[in-house]
# Entry
Amino acid sequence: PVGVREIAKIARTDPGNVSRLLALLEREDLVRRSPEGGIQEVLWDQLLRTWTKDYSLTESNRVYTYLDPRGLDAFVLRLRGLPSQMDYALTGSLAAARWAPVAPARLGVAYVRDAAAAAGALDLVPTETGANVLLVEPKGDFAFERTVKDGGLTYVAPSQAVADLLTGPGRNPSEAEALLDWMRKNEDAWRTQP
# Structure
């Protein structure tokens, strides 16, 4: 079992913070500890659902709406050509489709560090209505941690995609459920070990 100090090192935070958080998560029955105090089990799917009570893609971050007049396929193609110093990570339907496709995406969502710079590089048009692309500036580096590179594209971690989909509009919650189902069946493919 992973202990408090090891978790604090991984999370780059104070062990006291970790200890208080683990006590809360244990009271909420989201983690189970060994008699020595290490974490034996994390009920990660329930933890993700609990997280989204306090987190929302559109309310917890800065979101900018754009139109790619050529459509999502053109948006994805141009993402592959972004300069390497321009970080991005796809989330939402486009990320979910990588692991558990439900239906073709209608909205492209990508975390970026600078939405205006990314929009310029991607030839996106700012719009108030009819957006097919959301560029999201996260409040922190979380969206760029544990990313997955595949086919020349960078995707958020599956857990981040689930959180974003659970709080999204339309069919996003059903896409989150499909991705959660895939994650339950393929834990070795996405879970990282400390």
